[in-house]
Design a protein that fits this description.
Helix content: 25-40%
Largest sheet: 7 strands, antiparallel
Order of helices and strands: HHEEEEEEEEEHEEH
Mean pLDDT: 85
Distance between the termini: 73 Å
Low-confidence stretches: 4-20
Strand content: 35-45%
Number of strands: 11
Shape: elongated
Length: about 240
């Protein structure tokens, strides 16, 4: 019942918000109140959780999956703030074929557009900062995710070891996601730790770190095996 009410409010609230028709101050106030109700309802569903990524039962990656709802104060039109519902993930993986680490940041922001449809947005700008360090220098490419939104892929010529070290550098791990929904717009940002209580965040972050250490052990063992093979060939 609550979800039906929320959807109904979102549909009603979007009717005049982003049309070319100029809305009155009274209408803007009403729409902002409705968006506020929507926001207060959806923000209760914010979460972040750790997932082990496996292939044929074997560990290949460590993921933090998240859901975040926020008010868009950066892309205002007619003084109305949209409620933005976003789902995504941040993951560190190890490629056993290429013997390298890589990172994937995914986010799918959704809003209700003027046609009363759920619109998934491809953010013109998306990045993650860890220990105040931007990952932009590690980025290889951006592409649209299968479910919409944006996927940013990070890797390096150093087999991704520098990526791995950046993630494990300071503990407890945390990351700040920055994005913009409009070209050349101001950034909206949120820390992963802000999506759940501090106590629960420490638990999920610890699981993520332990998984990353396990990935590191896997990579180290593989490197040792490769060195043994090379030694055998050179003898």
């Amino acid at each position: 019942m609550i979800k039906i009410l929320i959807v109904g409010l979102m549909l009603f609230a979007s009717v005049n918000t982003y049309s070319d028709k100029k809305i009155t101050v009274s209408e803007a106030n009403t729409l902002n109140q409705l968006n506020s109700i929507i926001y207060e309802s959806l923000i209760k569903e914010n979460f972040i959780k750790f997932n082990r990524l496996t292939r044929k039962g074997l560990l290949v990656g460590c993921e933090l999956e998240f859901q975040n709802t926020y008010r868009d104060t950066r892309g205002l039109k007619d003084s109305v703030m949209r409620t933005v519902f976003s789902a995504g993930s941040f993951s560190l993986s190890y490629d056993t074929d290429r013997h390298s680490f890589w990172v994937l940041l995914k986010i799918i922001p959704s809003v209700i557009n003027i046609k009363n449809e759920v619109e998934k947005i491809y953010p013109p700008y998306l990045d993650i900062f860890i220990n105040d360090e931007s990952f932009e220098k590690y980025k290889l490419n951006d592409h649209e995710c299968e479910m919409g939104g944006k996927c940013s892929f990070y890797a390096t010529k150093k087999l991704g070891v520098d990526l791995y070290e950046s993630i494990l550098k300071n503990q407890p791990f945390d990351g700040e996601v920055k994005l913009s929904l409009i070209k050349d717009g101001m950034d909206t940002s949120f820390k992963l730790s802000s999506l759940i209580t501090h106590e629960n965040w420490l638990k999920e972050s610890e699981k993520f770190t332990k998984c990353n250490l396990e990935l590191g052990d896997l990579a180290t063992n593989e490197f040792k095996q490769l060195l043994k093979k090379e030694d055998g060939i050179n003898k």
